[in-house]
Amino acid sequence: MRQNIRFISQYIPWLLLLLGNNAFAALLLWIADIQAFYSMITVILLTTFLFFSLICGLLVHREQKRKQAFTSFLHDPEEHREELLKILCPAQRAPVRLLGRTLRDQQKAYDNLKMQINDYEEYVESWAHETKTPLSLLTLLLDNHRDEFPAAVGSKLDYIRNRMQESTDQMLFYARLKSTRKDYLFEPVHILSCIEEVLDDYKPLLEEKQFQIQFSMSDDTVYTDQRGLRFLLRQIISNSIKYCGNKPALNFTSLKEKGRFICAIRDNGIGVRGCDLPYLFEKGFTGDSGKERKKATGMGLYLAKEMARELNITLQVKSEWKKGFEIRIYFPLVDSMAEFRQNSHQAPSAPI
């Protein structure tokens, strides 16, 4: 209603001219025959009101048709929509023609770019899956013939395998996160079993660095995508291995609080400086926490945060320089997909 009033207000001078013309005609009638004026005044006022309302209605209806045609033209700048808009806006035929040509050129460029991005995503995913074949063979070789290698060679091969696996997973999940096609499978997942599976992937490195693993948590069930959760846990555990200190340890604890299941993972490594904490989840950020972090890509925790956002999981980190690093994973407690979707609209942003 306000938009209609605002639109009609731009025609006020013409509408006032119309009212003035009717008033002048009534004045002439009053001068010519005052008795006829008094007998016709009701008809004159009613006719003026109806005529005025009809003009305003026609103006509003015409403007609504223009807006509808313009909106449709913006969403789909086909030539037949352009012709319809030019008929409704004859005074702007040239600008409409130029706008249509520009929009169609941009749509064509967008479609080409989208096709290139889709081809790139398919290539990255294909490359990542192809890379997993030699990684599987390397894993099989290490599992079946570890005794035939010197200990130093075996540990280096384990390190190479894990780094290659990490980089491949990061590339695959990065493409997955940025893709318009989502294939998450939300289901009940036993959190403790999932953590143990991830630890088993890093078992050779954990044993080499003599990590002490401690659990103070129950095997609760969370409703999430298992592949995404495993990827998130791998980024956290990998960081703990990379930046461990003397007598390294990993502690896993859990609790329930305000309708959420909380899994806390804490190490006793080098930690993170306080000035770096607010930027820890930013893409490419490595911080100023030692030489090891300067060699990092800064993608691990960024991808962990992005995956957490996709899974409606909240991350919270705590750390003191040289006193370890702790990250808490907050899962909403839900029993069904419908409840998960309802809670996802109310999910808070990931605090730091």
Looking at the chains present, what oligomeric state does this protein adopt?
single chain
- Listing every helix as H and every strand as E from the N terminus to the C terminus, the arrangement reads HHHHHHEHHEEHEEHHEEH
Biggest sheet descriptor: 5 strands, mixed
Helix content: 55-70%
Radius of gyration over alpha carbons? 35 Å
Strand arrangement in the largest pleated sheet: 2-4-5-7-6
Form type? elongated
Question: Could you please describe the fold and organization of this structure?
Answer:
This protein has helices spanning 2-9, 12-32, 34-75, 79-88, 93-145, 151-178, 191-201, 203-208, 226-242, 291-294, 300-310, 337-344, and strands spanning 186-190, 212-216, 221-225, 249-257, 260-267, 314-319, 325-332. It has 352 residues and is of the alpha+beta class. The longest helix has 53 residues, at 93-145. Residues 345-352 have low confidence and may be disordered.
Précis, in short:
The protein has helices at 2-9, 12-32, 34-75, 79-88, 93-145, 151-178, 191-201, 203-208, 226-242, 291-294, 300-310, 337-344; strands at 186-190, 212-216, 221-225, 249-257, 260-267, 314-319, 325-332.
Can you tag this structure with a few keywords?
352 residues; alpha+beta; 12 helices; disordered C terminus
Question: Layout of SSEs?
Answer:
Elements: H1 2-9, H2 12-32, H3 34-75, H4 79-88, H5 93-145, H6 151-178, E1 186-190, H7 191-201, H8 203-208, E2 212-216, E3 221-225, H9 226-242, E4 249-257, E5 260-267, H10 291-294, H11 300-310, E6 314-319, E7 325-332, H12 337-344
Parallel strand pairs: 2-4
Antiparallel strand pairs: 1-3, 4-5, 5-7, 6-7
Helix pairs in contact: 2-3, 3-4, 4-5, 5-6, 6-9, 6-11, 7-9, 9-11
